[in-house]
Amino acid sequence: MGAVIATRFSTAGHRVALTARGAAQLADVTGKLTGPHLSIPSDVTEPPDAVFSAVERSFGPVEVLVLNAGAAVAKPLTALTDEEWQSQLDLNLTAPFRYMRRAIPAMVERGWGRIIVIASIAAKRGDRDISAYTASKHGVLGLVRSAAAELAKTGVTVNAVCPGYVDSPMTDSNISLLAAHTGRTEQDIRRALERKQPIHRLITADEVADAVDLCVLSAAITGQSIVVDGGAVQS
Question: Taking the model in full, what pTM does it have?
């Protein structure tokens, strides 16, 4: 999803800065960008000052922050280790908090900013076998709502986009993990995920990017969790 969102922004004329752990992954995405861009290999679970400093040197203060990094550990609650639990909180909740905290002062100073967290429908309900992921996404949705309330008069909006099951590498990885832990085939699990969504297919990354665009364009949408799941969760 991050690659699609970045490409969409670049095509629209935005200067785009990307961060990810893998240099090869970054190179694959930046090769598709048409406008000014910057790639910064980094682990988002580390403090973000170096990333922001690099962006500010090249492009100035961050105006739009999209927090897309995330991962899920798919296994029963009783099989989760303390390390797996903590890793989910670090990546899906603490990292967005740190990046938001670093970006907000400059946005408030300018009187304009957009923060969009890619959450999940797991932030809106509970599903089996993803308890750590679900807890972290419920937490990040609370963070979004609280930040939006604090910033409502500043010109800075904060929203969450909550995709359903997306046709993505993360979904593929989770399907493989579930197959290993349950004995079901990957094909059966994929079909079950498709059937959970009333449109009976996985969501595309472009459909998630449409919701991100909306959050960037609107000054009146803030503190919201925009569900993109084909109608499974109605809110």
Answer: 0.92
